Each structure stands twice: as C-alpha cells, then as structure tokens.
UniProtKB/TrEMBL annotation:
It comes from Nocardia yunnanensis. Pfam families: DUF1697. InterPro entries: DUF1697. Gene3D superfamilies: SP0830-like domains. It comes from the Bacteria. This is DUF1697 domain-containing protein.
Length: 180
C-alpha cells in the first residue's frame, strides 16, 4: 500500500457537495483505504495499491466531477515527498502566524526552471524557492499590509491553473495524518 495526500483545488466548504463526508465517500467508493480528511479545504489522505500518481489524480478528478460536480484539480503528493519537504525545513527561522503565512503551492509539472514572476504589486509576497521533490513553490506572504495580494493570479498566469496552495501548517498536518 502507498500513502498519499490529495490536495483538491476549488473546494468551498459552504457547498454541500464539497463537505468532508462527501469527499471521503468518493475516495472510499474508488476503493482507497484509510481515507481521512483534514480541515475543510479539500485535503484528503488515503492509501492505495496503485503507485501511478497521474492515473490516481485523473481517476479521482473524474469521480469528483461525476459524483459531486467538482470541476477543480486534484494534485497528489506521496508521504515520502511530504516527509522530505518537511524534513528540509524550508521556512527555517520563520513562523506561520496571522502576520506571516508560509505557503506551499503545488504544481502539476515541474518547470525546467523557476520562472521569473512579475512583481507582486502589493510587495507582500517573497518566493523562497522551488522544491523539485515536492514539485512546489515555497513562499512567504506578509499579511501586515491591508492590501490583498494577487500572487495566486500571478502564479496562475505564469505557470498555469493546474496548481493549488496550502499553508505549510496544513502540509505538516497532512503528513502527521499519513504517519499516524
């Protein structure tokens, strides 16, 4: 059995079809084991015999769309990928808090090199690096500025919409669930 975390794009907890129990039901209906959800923002940990991540992502997304009408994307990372990311201490010396968000933006495919992102017009985002093993952009968002950052739109325009962002705390919680 292989352990995975699925990070679903476009989940709105206020939508009854996107609630955790329905998400778990889709994953269990696909025959996955030890299915568990985390928070209410589209984070599902599970075990599967299949080790082909792209096939799993496609199968899950098709089922979510067919059964619940969820059109977003499904990005999967293995327990080992998340463990390596957490072990690398990518945000050393920084603390996630109301003023500073430590974020992980998972992308479908690794770019050959991290593109130059256009300047964030609010000056509130600092891209630290691209993690090739987790296939993720690691960034710090300064929330002390009342302006709303448009960084996610910048990432989408630069890399494409096949991305999803989580806080580093959420990634750590997903790993903890995978390890329990």
């Amino acid at each position: 059995m292989h352990s995975y975390a699925a990070f679903l794009r476009g989940i709105m907890p206020s939508n009854p079809n996107m609630r955790n129990e329905k998400l778990r039901g889709v994953f269990e209906g696909l025959g996955f084991d030890n299915v568990s959800t985390l928070l209410s923002s589209g984070n599902v940990v599970f075990q599967a015999k299949d080790s082909k991540v792209p096939a799993l992502e496609s199968r899950i997304q098709q089922a979510l769309n067919a059964e619940l009408g969820i059109p977003g994307g499904t990005l999967i990372r293995t327990r080992d990928q998340l463990q390596a990311l957490v072990d690398s201490d990518p945000f050393a010396g920084l603390t996630h808090c109301r003023e500073t968000y430590l974020t992980v933006t998972f992308v479908r495919e690794a770019p050959k090199q991290l593109p130059e992102f256009p300047a964030d017009d609010t000056g509130t985002v600092r891209v630290l690096r691209f993690d090739p093993d987790a296939v993720a952009i690691l960034s710090v968002i300064d929330n002390t500025d009342p302006s709303t950052t448009n960084f996610m739109q910048i990432v989408e325009k630069t890399i494409g919409k096949d991305i999803t962002t989580r806080t580093f705390l959420t990634v750590q919680k997903a790993l903890k669930k995978l390890n329990s």
